[in-house]
Design brief:
alpha+beta; four-stranded antiparallel sheet
Length: 165
């Protein structure tokens, strides 16, 4: 016959296991998935996409990384973020990106390249420093870590200027 302490310990272990399985994982957006910022269909545009998982609700998708940072860096952004994923531009096709999701905080971002996204100039995200450096050699730009991204790096002429999310 189980003791009270044994039952409490078992319940605690089950709760801990349940929390571990609730960690967000990247989800491939459906064919008609739209950008949370402007409603544009993701698959209609080149460049790496992003997704933000909040502590509540479904993930928000973004059709380019400039839009992602326009939202994340906005001073009025108050929702609790559980995870942010971006597509690895070193692994996926820029013209038709699919899969290859990586944790944004671990990625290296190329700012100021010649590559275009849904709203013009955008960022590339890379899991590999070598692939980011090779991209800079081909397309220009500067490599920046997630924690060093600043609102001043956003293209003020595109959707980022209108991001009042």
């Amino acid at each position: 016959m189980p003791t009270k302490i044994g039952c409490v310990l078992f319940a605690f272990v089950l709760a801990a296991c349940s929390e571990a399985t609730l960690a967000p994982v990247a989800q491939e957006p459906s064919a008609g998935a739209a950008c949370a910022l402007d409603g544009m269909v993701l698959q209609d545009f080149p460049g790496p996409k992003a997704q933000v998982h909040y502590t509540e609700g479904k993930p928000d998708y973004y059709c380019d990384l400039t839009e992602l940072f326009a939202v994340l860096l906005a001073p009025e952004h108050k929702r609790k973020v559980a995870a942010v994923f971006v597509q690895d531009a070193g692994k996926t096709d820029w013209a038709k990106p699919s899969g290859h999701w990586i944790v944004a905080k671990d990625a290296l971002f190329v700012v100021g390249s010649r590559k275009q996204g849904s709203m013009g100039a955008t960022f590339g995200a890379f899991a590999s420093a070598q692939e980011a450096a090779a991209f800079v050699q081909r397309e220009g730009g500067t490599i920046v870590q997630f924690d060093h991204m600043k609102a001043a790096m956003l293209d003020k002429s595109g959707a980022a200027a209108n991001a009042r999310h």
